Each structure stands twice: as C-alpha cells, then as structure tokens.
Amino acid sequence: MLSVNNIPIKNAQELEIELFKNSGFTGRFEIDLFDYENQREFSVFKDVNNLSFPQDQSPSSFFNLQPFVDYSPVISSVSENSIAFQSGLRTGT
Predict the structure, then answer these.
(1) Burial (0-12, 13-18, 19+ Cβ within 10 Å), 55
(2) Of 29, 31, 71, 84, which has the maximum CB count within 10 A?
(3) Is the overall model pTM greater than 0.85, yes or no?
(4) Interatomic CA distance for residues 3 and 17, integer angstroms
(5) 25-60 tens-digit pLDDT
C-alpha cells in the first residue's frame, strides 16, 4: 500500500485510519499499490457515494483488502531470569 487519495500510507494501521477518515466521502476513491511480484506500482479506483463502513468490519474489508505486516517483529529487550529469557528469547530476534 502506497497511498489513499494521495495520502501516503506507511503501515496497516495507517491504512485503516485513513480509510476511516474518509467516511462520508463521495467521488472517485484512489488507492495506490505496489506489486512486489512484478515490481511495479498501480492504482485502483472506486466510485463511492457517502462512503461508510459496517461497525463489525475493518474499513479495508470494504475494498476487499487484507493488509498484512510486511516485516518480521523484532524483540527490543529481554530481561535476564525472565520466563522469556528462560524460554530462549533474546534481544534482536
């Protein structure tokens, strides 16, 4: 995900927030994406009228998007003698 209506998106949480901020929007909605497989950018357009989202679904599901984190989480610290340390978790893994 690159942007929503020309607003840059850095992560999945920003995507949901930016989509939600567009509640009530009427017009042509633009989502700019990056295709990692083909290494190219492309845009998807959808005409919307008074954009709204069901309370029981994420805003991205309205567009049939399933955002995912494209990086692995990293442990920033582990206290010695903690259960995590005893289980083998280490900083930076």
Answers:
(1) exposed
(2) 31
(3) no
(4) 12
(5) 999 999 999 888 889 999 999 999 999 988 888 898
Question: E strands within 5-63?
Answer: 7-8, 27-35, 40-48
Query: Is 30 in a helix, a strand, or coil?
Result: strand
One-letter identity of residue 44: V
Burial class (CB in 10 A: 0-12, 13-18, 19+), 60: buried
Which tokens go with 55? 């309370």
Where are the chain's structural domains?
3-86
Q: Helices in 1-69 by DSSP H: which ranges?
A: 12-21, 59-62
